[in-house]
């Protein structure tokens, strides 16, 4: 067996080497002009393009920076002038607002409630979506394609259509105004996209790789956990980031289905807006803190997210 594998490997290597030499001769067309992609890459790699991209990045970061600086100013300064005045008067910077935020039990409790909703909703969507995506990609069962078309059709169903029916259902079963009800709602509406995304990604895994694992005695569960999951890591990480951001920043579902006594951070901040003149010292740092958590999650998994996006683009 080893001899056969060595012979096959040597033959493949020789063929690749010959193909490489032939390709090297055809790599540059006559006249010294490279492929179109190489020319585009050379033109877009200049200093002007980099400066433009830096300016775009700074433009998109400006609201975050403005919110941060506003959260470091006193209520009188916030009401009297714009956040950019900090650069002219650095003495305005104070951390007293964050002290007020930490002493506000409602807002701090809302962060805990948001985490209790976001983490389970993200984990459930990733786990169930991964299992369903693998089943639709590599398992044969009756009506597989028809059920997948149903899943694709659910992508176009707007959330607003289901608000009243689901509210009646949750009220009948005792899930209305509970954390579990909000988690179930986010999970149900996040699964169609998760299944669609992961099924298409898993379907691009080479069949020979899965068949070789089956020949080695791997069952479907072991095949899923040892082969499919590691290869689908970038796509799964991208899905997790998307789901986390959607649930964390959601206000509509939280406003309707969450417990009004223990609301998520988005609803808690909206309630603070009603008393804007009195609670600006809590509202500004609370809004910035609610925005920082998704940013931390995104930058923590940035490499996996970019890998997943690039893999999907190549495929």
Overall pLDDT, averaged? 80
Q: Order of helices and strands, N to C?
A: HHHHHHHHHHHHHHHH
Give the beta-strand count. 0
Strand residue content? under 5%
What does this protein structure show overall?
By secondary structure, the chain is mainly α. It has helices at 2-26, 36-44, 47-71, 75-80, 96-102, 105-138, 144-154, 159-173, 179-202, 207-215, 220-231, 233-248, 252-257, 265-273, 276-300, 302-314. The longest helix is centred in the middle third of the chain and has 34 residues, at 105-138.
Secondary structure topology:
Elements: H1 2-26, H2 36-44, H3 47-71, H4 75-80, H5 96-102, H6 105-138, H7 144-154, H8 159-173, H9 179-202, H10 207-215, H11 220-231, H12 233-248, H13 252-257, H14 265-273, H15 276-300, H16 302-314
Helix pairs in contact: 3-15, 5-15, 6-9, 6-12, 6-14, 7-9, 9-12, 10-11, 12-15, 12-16, 14-15
Describe the structure using short key phrases.
single chain, 315 residues, mainly alpha, 16 helices, 78% helix, 0% strand, globular, disordered N terminus
